[in-house]
Amino acid sequence: QVQLVESGGGLVQPGGSLRLSCAASGFTFSSYAMSWYRQAPGKEREFLAIISSGGTTYYADSVKGRFTISRDNAKNTVYLQMSSLKPEDTAVYCCHANPGDYWGQGTQVTVSS
């Protein structure tokens, strides 16, 4: 069955960095566009970044220049490198696969001193 499993979240100080991973299984990963979203308490889910099957990337303005999405098709994994983190980046971060509209369960990122 399809699985998307995020990891790499945690507590980080403002200005710090984290790398999130999303391991995929159950579908042909290399043929899918992969995205990252986040949802903070009381807020709507927010699109962050997408990487196409061919490697083209696109970012939301809120994270452009600070976050980098990448993929390793040999490992069926998509990454989100996050730097210059701010308290407002605190949220549950989820990966998404399209087509198929597959979602992972999310990983918590907390930015706090």
Note the main attributes of this structure:
mainly beta; 7-stranded mixed beta sheet; 4-stranded antiparallel beta sheet; 0% helix
| Gap between N and C termini | 40 Å
Helix content: under 10%
Q: What percent strand?
A: over 45%
Name the structural class: mainly beta
Compute the gyration radius: what is it? 13 Å
User: Helical element count?
Assistant: 0
- Order of helices and strands, N to C? EEEEEEEEEEE
Q: Give average pLDDT, whole number.
A: 97
| Shape descriptor | globular
Biggest sheet features: 7 strands, mixed
Q: What is the number of E strands?
A: 11
Low-pLDDT runs: none
Write a structural description:
With 113 residues, the chain is mainly beta. It has no helices and 11 strands. Strands 2, 4, 5, 6, 9, 10 and 11 form a 7-stranded mixed β-sheet that branches. The protein has a 4-stranded antiparallel β-sheet with strand order 1-3-8-7, with no helix packed on it. A hairpin with a 3-residue loop joins β9 and β10 (102-103). It is globular, with a radius of gyration of 13 Å. The chain starts with a strand and ends with a strand. The model has no long low-confidence stretch (mean pLDDT 97).
Write the layout of secondary structure elements.
Elements: E1 3-7, E2 10-12, E3 18-25, E4 33-39, E5 46-51, E6 57-59, E7 67-72, E8 77-82, E9 91-98, E10 102-103, E11 107-111
